[in-house]
UniProtKB/TrEMBL annotation, chain A:
It comes from the Bacteria. The transhydrogenation between NADH and NADP is coupled to respiration and ATP hydrolysis and functions as a proton pump across the membrane. This is proton-translocating NAD(P)(+) transhydrogenase. The lineage of its organism: Bacteria, Pseudomonadati, Pseudomonadota, Gammaproteobacteria, Thiotrichales. It catalyses: NAD(+) + NADPH + H(+)(in) = NADH + NADP(+) + H(+)(out). GO terms for molecular function: NADP binding; proton-translocating NAD(P)+ transhydrogenase activity. Its main location: membrane. It is a multi-pass membrane protein. GO terms for biological process: NADPH regeneration. The keyword Transmembrane helix applies. It comes from Thiothrix caldifontis. Residues 7-89 form the NAD(P) transhydrogenase alpha subunit C-terminal domain. The chain crosses the membrane at residues 6-26, 38-54, 60-80. Keywords: Cell inner membrane, Cell membrane, Membrane, NAD, NADP, Translocase, Transmembrane, Transmembrane helix. It is found in: Cell inner membrane.
Automatic annotation (TrEMBL), chain B:
The lineage of its organism: Bacteria, Pseudomonadati, Pseudomonadota, Gammaproteobacteria, Thiotrichales. It comes from Thiothrix caldifontis. Keywords: Cell inner membrane, Cell membrane, Membrane, NAD, NADP, Translocase, Transmembrane, Transmembrane helix. The chain crosses the membrane at residues 6-24, 33-51, 57-75, 87-107, 119-138, 159-175, 181-202, 209-229, 235-255. It catalyses: NAD(+) + NADPH + H(+)(in) = NADH + NADP(+) + H(+)(out). Heterodimer of an alpha and a beta chain. The keyword Transmembrane helix applies. The transhydrogenation between NADH and NADP is coupled to respiration and ATP hydrolysis and functions as a proton pump across the membrane. This is NAD(P) transhydrogenase subunit beta. GO terms for molecular function: NADP binding; proton-translocating NAD(P)+ transhydrogenase activity.
Amino acid sequence: MEGFIAIYIFILAGFVGYEVISKVPVILHTPLMSGSNFVHGIVLVGAMVVLGQAEGFTEQLVGFIAVVLAAGNAVGGYVVTERMLEMFKSSKGDK
Amino acid sequence: MNLFVEIFYLAAAVLFILGLKQMASPVTARRGIVWAGIGMVLATLITFAHPHVNTNYLLIIIGIAVGGGIAWKTGKEVAMTDMPQMIALYNGMGGGAAAAIAAVELIKQHEMDSTVQLLAVFGALIGSVAFSGSLIAFGKLQGIKQLRGAFRFKNQQRINAGLFIVVAWMGLGIATSGTDYGMFTLFLFFALALAFGVMMTLPIGGADMPVVISLYNAFTGLAVGFEGYVLDNPAMMIAGIVVGSAGTLLTQLMAKAMNRPITNVLFSNFGETTGEAQEVSGSMKAIEAPDAAIMMAFAEKVIIIPGYGMAVAQAQHKIWEMTKQLQERGVTVKFAIHPVAGRMPGHMNVLLAEAGVPYDIIYDLDEINEEFRTADVALVIGANDVVNPIARTDPNSPIYGMPILNADYAKNVIVVKRGQGAGFSGIENHLFFADNCRMLYGDGQAVANELISNMKEL
């Protein structure tokens, strides 16, 4: 990728992350940390790409570890975040 | 890259950002995580069609099944009180995955652009630290005996600094040597990076763990973003950096809530204060459950201050039952949550939500602190340091300057507590000796039960 485009992406994504979080109420901090933890589970995609072109035992082994760990990050992050957010209810009786 | 794959990755990145944005409000938060989840599924599925994925399909599927399966099971079963350490664990796995990606790329020793190589190594370093550090954080919060408390020895900061310099130097060497680095050097680099994560986390005490977990969450995000650049994968770059910056902000917010600069947490000095602590005057005065029940039942406004002790005693369901009783009698009941109540900011809200307490009677520090003056009763259950007025008055106290809930301004204060000892931090709580404060001794859940039955009889 062209170096400068990458810098644009990095900087703009940095602003987006800052903006999105800065308005979150304290009551949601734990689910939110968990939710952002889930989002970096996208590392699974990278782990798949790496394992999908790995040759030889060492590369395959390390690539496989990457996929297992990344899948744990993504799935675990989703399950616990969803469980927490599901419980937040208002007294006005919306579901 | 294949256009089709690109479009899916773009969609995933957009869904992640929109999902996180929705999580900013309790009303839409649930939808937010579902959207982000859809993004993840799309990105994962389309990766099978990625032009670089040509082999090892079976291994990929087995890997996803194994990692995902274990995480699914543990995630479904974990108790809400244990949530912080599970988040640490899943986060550490992500950091480990990022480091492993870098490892494979570096093992191949293929020609890389120098920027790519530098970011690969840098991502490997912070990913490894996030991995091993998160495992230690998990162990500490899980209460594994050998890891509990702050683990310190002489010259620790110097040894850690030395280790860091060695790791950074080796990393720089690998990053700038083209394809000339040896496999043993590479192995040693990863081993030392992992060791550094352990060493960095060991001296930090359990109370500071939330800040550390949040910091490692940001680390993992950055590592994922950098490895995304290495793999030329914009979805990873965007998602990783968004989490990296969001996590950094969240870490700052938490450290601020605890009145502890991040540097102070990492190079901890907790409790090392000079000078004499203020003497406590007065004595603790006990109250029995029937009297406490009367006091609350005939009050106009009761503010409940729950702390982690309440969750440990599993008393939140009973407290909610008691709250409903009071509400039926026309008492206004509000919950006041300190930013660091529980093991993590917002953790207490999760625990109350689990018990069924609606979020619109739960208030945070800034919203409720003025209201204590008009409250008839402040019921403190399982909280200690966060209501200690010494934080306002005694510059020699280690918690001086920490924002506290002004429970002492209420007309009456009832403190539910197991025994007479000092709190988590070992600091004497002056509130307990105040004239308007009464101690209700006993296990949180048992006390709540007694209060409920006494109220029913009124």
